[in-house]
């Protein structure tokens, strides 16, 4: 938390010195989002977009903020804009997929996440999101494969361990479920969804 506060102070200072650099405003939005100040993050992302309307990564980051804030339709709109601006930007497809999931459009989400993985096959966040979509569809073997692949890329991701524990629980494999729940708790005690 202390690192975020320090980063926030530095970025605010940088923004006061150079109001025309969209990347400062984008980074400020990212840090504000991480602190949970979604309104201030939205304002920072809006400033970045006003300065660089063709910067797809800013639209994608803004979509992530709206998703975290619970504004799923707005997240979808922003993610669609990011994808339109840069069809080869994997994080934009991830944001699109995540927004579609929240709006209950799991088949479309699966396609968007698949596109993110075609662009970046070792994208652990996209694999984790895909695993969640497949779990919701009760396609547990495929969900386990996606979560296992994500874990091979990022073995220290608490959310992936918890997700894999849930999948094993659904499959009736309580031993592996417990192993992954425990590992998820060890990595991040606050992340037992």
Work out the strand percent: under 5%
Shape: globular
Q: Quick one: biggest sheet? A: none
- Percent helix range: over 70%
What does this structure look like?
The protein has helices at residues 2-17, 22-35, 38-51, 56-69, 72-85, 90-102, 106-119, 124-136, 140-153, 158-171, 174-187. 80% of the residues lie in helices and 0% in strands. It has 193 residues and is mostly helical. The chain is built from 11 helices and no strands.
Key words describing this protein structure:
single chain, 193 residues, mainly alpha, 0% strand, globular
SSE arrangement:
Blueprint lengths: L1 H16 L4 H14 L2 H14 L4 H14 L2 H14 L4 H13 L3 H14 L4 H13 L3 H14 L4 H14 L2 H14 L6
Helix pairs in contact: 1-2, 2-3, 2-4, 3-4, 4-5, 4-6, 5-6, 6-7, 6-8, 7-8, 8-9, 8-10, 9-10, 10-11
């Amino acid at each position: 938390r202390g690192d975020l506060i320090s980063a926030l102070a530095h970025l605010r200072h940088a923004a006061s010195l150079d109001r025309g650099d969209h990347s400062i405003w984008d980074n400020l939005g990212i840090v504000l989002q991480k602190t949970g100040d979604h309104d201030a993050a939205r304002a920072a992302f809006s400033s970045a977009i006003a300065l660089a309307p063709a910067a797809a990564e800013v639209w994608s980051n803004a979509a992530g903020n709206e998703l975290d804030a619970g504004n799923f339709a707005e997240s979808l709109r922003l993610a669609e804009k990011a994808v339109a601006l840069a069809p080869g930007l994997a994080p934009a497809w991830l944001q699109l997929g995540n927004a579609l999931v929240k709006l209950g459009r799991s088949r479309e989400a699966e396609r968007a996440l698949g596109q993110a993985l075609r662009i970046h096959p070792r994208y652990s966040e996209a694999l984790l999101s895909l695993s969640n979509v497949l779990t919701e569809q009760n396609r547990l073997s495929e969900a386990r494969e996606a979560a296992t692949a994500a874990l091979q890329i990022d073995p220290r991701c608490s959310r992936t361990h918890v997700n894999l524990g849930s999948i094993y629980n659904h499959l009736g494999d309580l031993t592996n479920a417990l192993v992954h729940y425990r590992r998820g708790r060890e990595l991040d005690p606050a992340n037992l969804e």
